[in-house]
Design goal:
This protein has helices at about 10-20, 50-70, 100-105, 130-140, 225-235, 250-255, 270-295; strands at about 5, 25-30, 40, 70-80, 115, 145-155, 170-175, 190, 200, 205-210, 240-245, 260-265. With about 300 residues, the chain is an alpha/beta fold. The strands form three sheets. Strands 1-12-11-2-4-7-6-10 form an eight-stranded mixed sheet, sandwiched between helices. Strands 3-5 form a two-stranded antiparallel sheet. Strand 11, helix 6 and strand 12 (about 260-265) form a beta-alpha-beta unit. The radius of gyration is 19 Å and the shape is globular. Keywords: Methyltransferase, Transferase.
């Protein structure tokens, strides 16, 4: 079952893993569908709920199963973009902009029907819903330790037509754990210091890099360099990395290149060929880069 993507509803796929893998998966890294963005007409699709509360509860149910699959010292790295209430534009409906970052890699193309983001509770049209934090706090309330919020600072964000706010140039990555003490190899992701030559420091919580621009049959797939630190810090070689929303297979490709095993779940079976191609290319690229680095040492 390892190094395989299961196709179908996320909860059902994850439940099928429990008999063999409960407590055996070291880490989960994934990115979630936007709330109220598009309806792809797929049974079991997440993101088309009537209210943000229903959306959050659906995700909590998914991660209840992830909890059971993770080792006690395992961790969850979660990326999620925000939405505006009542706009009908979780992102834009033409070719100027698409779901960015990890979300795009998990969605296939963006040909689905544009949805109007539902209003609920005290939300007003144009309100920023705060979806990432709602999900993070809901998971915290279920027992997860909310350890950190990481900012992905995008150097080349998509332009936005709004003239009454700044252009969004960041996304969140949350680090959550099952226990107070969990596996985190900080040495594996240390970064060069700014002022001292040949010195390293603990990685900071703002990660600056461009969004993916390569053409992989997906709009704006997220950069492998964004996910690499999560896998290096969250697992050892030979460990199992889980992605419940596999999309184009970036998680699997990076995991394989870093000599980790992986398991994925994906609703849209049309992504199968895209995954196969991307996994092979990423694995080969990362293995070659690491080999050249070792030879240079």
């Amino acid at each position: 079952m390892i190094n395989t993507c299961l196709f179908g509803d996320a909860e059902q796929c994850l439940e099928s893993l429990l008999p063999e893998y409960a407590g055996k998966i070291q880490m989960c890294v994934t990115s979630l569908p936007y709330f109220g963005l598009r309806d792809y007409g797929l049974p079991g699709q997440i993101g088309i709920e009537d209210t943000v509360e229903e959306y959050v509860q659906k995700l909590v149910s998914v991660f209840d199963i992830v909890w059971d699959l993770l080792a006690d010292n395992g961790a969850l790295w979660l990326n999620l973009g925000d939405s505006y209430a009542g706009s009908g534009k979780g992102r834009y409906s033409d070719n100027r902009a698409y779901p960015t970052g990890m979300q795009a890699a998990n969605k296939g193309n963006v040909s689905g029907k544009l949805k109007k983001t539902p209003l609920s509770g005290n939300l007003k049209p144009k309100d920023l819903i705060g979806v990432p934090w709602r999900v993070a706090f809901a998971l915290q309330n279920k027992g997860w330790y909310l350890r950190q919020d990481i900012i992905w600072n995008k150097t080349n964000p998509m332009p936005e037509p709004a003239t009454d706010k700044c252009t969004r140039a960041h996304e969140y990555i949350f680090l959550l754990s099952k226990e107070r003490k969990y596996y985190f190899d900080y040495k594996a992701i240390r970064e060069p210091t700014v002022y001292l030559k040949n010195q390293e420091r603990n990685k900071r919580s703002v990660w600056t890099l461009a969004k993916q621009t390569a053409h992989i049959k997906h709009h704006a797939a997220f950069p492998p360099d964004l996910i690499t630190p999560t896998i290096l810090a969250g697992s050892k070689e030979g460990d199992i990395v889980l992605d419940p929303f596999m999309g184009s297979g970036t998680t699997a490709g990076v995991a394989a290149g870093l000599k980790r095993n992986w398991i994925g779940c994906e609703l849209n079976e049309e992504n199968k060929d895209i995954q196969t191609d991307r996994i092979i290319k990423l694995q080969t690229k990362i293995l070659n880069e690491n080999s050249q680095h070792m030879m240079a040492i």
